[in-house]
Amino acid sequence: MFDNKEQFKKAFLSKLEMSVGKSFEETSPQDQYHVLGNMIREYISTNWIKTNQVYHSTEAKQVYYLSIEFLLGRIMGSNILNLGIGDVVEEGLRDLGISLDDLESNEPDSALGNGGLGRLAACFMDSLASLDLPGHGCGIRYKHGLFEQKIVNGVQVEYPELWLQNGQVWEVRKSDLSVEVPFWGKVESFEDEQGRLRFRHRDAEPIMAVPYDIPVVGYQTETVNTLRLWNAEPANVPFHDDIMRYKRETEMVSEFLYPDDAEDSGKILRLKQQYFLVRASLNSILNSFRKKQKDIRELPNYVSIHINDTHPVLAIPELMRILLDEEMLPWEEAWDITVQTISYTNHTTLSEALEKWPVRLFQPLLPRIYMIVEEINERFCKELWERYPGQWQRIEDMAIIAHDQVKMAHLALVGTHSTNGVAYLHTEILKKREMNNFYEIFPERFNNKTNGITHRRWLMKSNPALTGLITESIGDKWKVEPPLLKELEHYKDDAAFLEQLEKVKHENKVKLAERIFQQNQIKVNLDSIFDVQVKRLHAYKRQLLNVLHIMYLYNRMKEDPSFRPHPRTFIFGAKASPGYYYAKKIIKLINTVAEKVNNDKTTNDYLKVVFLENYRVSLAEEIFPAAEVSEQISTASKEASGTGNMKFMMNGALTIGTMDGANVEIFERVGKDNIFIFGMTSEEVMNYQANGGYHSSEYYMLDRRIHEAVNQLVNGFFPNTNGMFDVIYDSLLIENDQYFVLRDFDSYVKTQEKVSNAYQDKKGWNKSSVVNIANSGFFSSDRTITEYANDIWHVKPVNSPIIKA
Ligand code: 26V
């Protein structure tokens, strides 16, 4: 039905009438979206079934990627691209007076994630399928994804997200594959007929995990992998207790992503979600494995289980439980299999983000799992004792259970054969500092896998004009082999090419300007530099540094009429965690500054500030193609990798950034003339942290620009903000500016001046832009996934790619 336009139109019209019972003219865009979505899913299904059959019958090793987040965004456009049916669909719809873009905008983002970690999982799914790797995603089908953000009077207001409200065309419910997950109750030991000590879990409260499968279509191949999302539902068992409470508590398990865990009840819910994901996924993984009738000791040769951060770390004791209690293997053998099967990625060194669960909550909720964790801990501590006799402090620091808490990262380090960081610098910091104790014992387990992004969504789908220009110049092999983008470097001195590139960027800026006007009623200057910082709002990401620089520019322009820099449009997008008070104040500050500078006629030809509400994958796809400056300004050592930095680079923006995360590797690839690096190095930051010696008040006292801007936070400079920004002021001066904003301010301002100067030479700028695009191929997640597949999982492609003409 997608072979040619006429066939497609006929099928589309007939399905439309049959499924919605309206004449074509009466159907809504929503109806049309659903019908097209269903047609595409049907089209996918043959290859989906075939792929599954191959996976069932093959001897090839399978990898399962367990993640509490999958931030897919819209699915239809990516499927259309990967299936290669874009032209037929677009032209067919056009004949019917329908724009494909408009239709796609009816699809809600699938936003089952917060930020980097969840988006990485989504990029990985796309790469796994596109590389014909037998990779399965396992996650949770949250009823509400990440909240929807509205900005009301400059303040973030959260609304529940409702992606399932109008039905989901991409998922298939598989109730026959449901799995029971037991919580609470107690563990009894008994002796079996053969006289072995066995355990059984009694009086548990079971809930049902029902899988919903989403097909993951590879690019130009027959492979269609599966993302399996588990939904929590009441189990079909007689229940004597309060049935309403049970139903409510059960459904809560897949209701929200990251429930607030300030209270015990929230912590229990989080832990329930984690075990729910792990128990259901491992059950289904082991079912598939058992069908192959291999000895259980062969598991690591057929199955690789990857845990995305520590949220699914209970996979370790859960696999132990299966091997000990169901397969009845001795501990040592079970442990060996578990460690060989599971691998772990660390995504942050921020101590507040390292998960710990109180024993008093863990033990009653998961009694058998807790017993196993205790045993793992005891054996590990014993080994430590043998290795470091008398070193109590070290053992206490490294224990999995200490001070009545279960440390999930320690469990991950001990119970897996591979721990990887997500950028070179991050991995070095893990090895040399944060996890140095563990590195000493398990040096061979540590490795780096620098993150990547799928160039299919982040270039080919979101930036068709640039994709076209690249293809006209170097052909289209880069689409399946992104490092070939390097050939673009031959064009960096080609005047005609540079002009074309500038035209593409300009057109993308026009589109973003329209979006900005539509959402914020702000008219932006198309000749201004589009300077963008989009990412989660967090103190370490230092949106505040960006804002203080804007305030300084404004102050200086007000003071000195002869100071008029190249016009800039500062664009922000960021969600703050609902309970993160400080981050919300930064959002308010950005909007307050925007209000002030955008309405000042003496400066607003030069300076505009735009906060785009509800930053999400689909909005990001409109932003990156239009960006010229990419703000990657985290305190060095704090951003594990960043992936937005790669999306900007691939779309030809130039980075202003610190030597942090993957910025370091971008720097290495584009060279110092094509990136703007500023600020302290991670070494300097860590030295300050270890030895002290930083006094933010000195910078405040000695730098007039800082003094003025910081005072303006609290002195009534912004009308009606009395006391509102005290917490920001205090963080800088009373709490000694933990993230070194004031320390890096001067360096940032000077480097921003370099950015402005560089922009004056438009040809030179465009040349740098080419160098960035040309070197972005390394950051395709195809490279990242190939490294995971070769070095950690040892999985190989299964289906041979069918290149469609
Ligand atoms: C989590 C939390 C939760 C508690 C409050 C503070 C806080 C701060 C950070 C986090 C990070 C969670 C893990 C995460 O998303 N890490 C991101 O992973 C990306 C993919 O590897 C990487 O590019 C980002 O640098 C990293 O921050």
TrEMBL record:
* The protein's required cofactors: pyridoxal 5'-phosphate
Under catalytic activity, the entry for this protein gives: [(1->4)-alpha-D-glucosyl](n) + phosphate = [(1->4)-alpha-D-glucosyl](n-1) + alpha-D-glucose 1-phosphate
Q: Give the InterPro entries listed for this entry.
A: Glycg_phsphrylas (IPR011833), Glyco_trans_35 (IPR000811), Pyridoxal_P_attach_site (IPR035090)
Task: Name a single GO biological process.
Answer: glycogen catabolic process
Q: Does the keyword Transferase apply?
A: yes
Give the modified residues of type N6-(pyridoxal phosphate)lysine.
Answer: K647
GO molecular function terms listed in the Swiss-Prot or TrEMBL record: glycogen phosphorylase activity; pyridoxal phosphate binding
- Enzyme Commission number(s) of this protein: 2.4.1.1
Enzyme class, one word?
Answer: transferase
* Described purpose of this protein according to its UniProt entry: Allosteric enzyme that catalyzes the rate-limiting step in glycogen catabolism, the phosphorolytic cleavage of glycogen to produce glucose-1-phosphate, and plays a central role in maintaining cellular and organismal glucose homeostasis. Phosphorylase is an important allosteric enzyme in carbohydrate metabolism. Enzymes from different sources differ in their regulatory mechanisms and in their natural substrates. However, all known phosphorylases share catalytic and structural properties.
Family, per the entry? Belongs to the glycogen phosphorylase family.
Protein's name in the database: Alpha-1,4 glucan phosphorylase
| Organism name | Pradoshia eiseniae
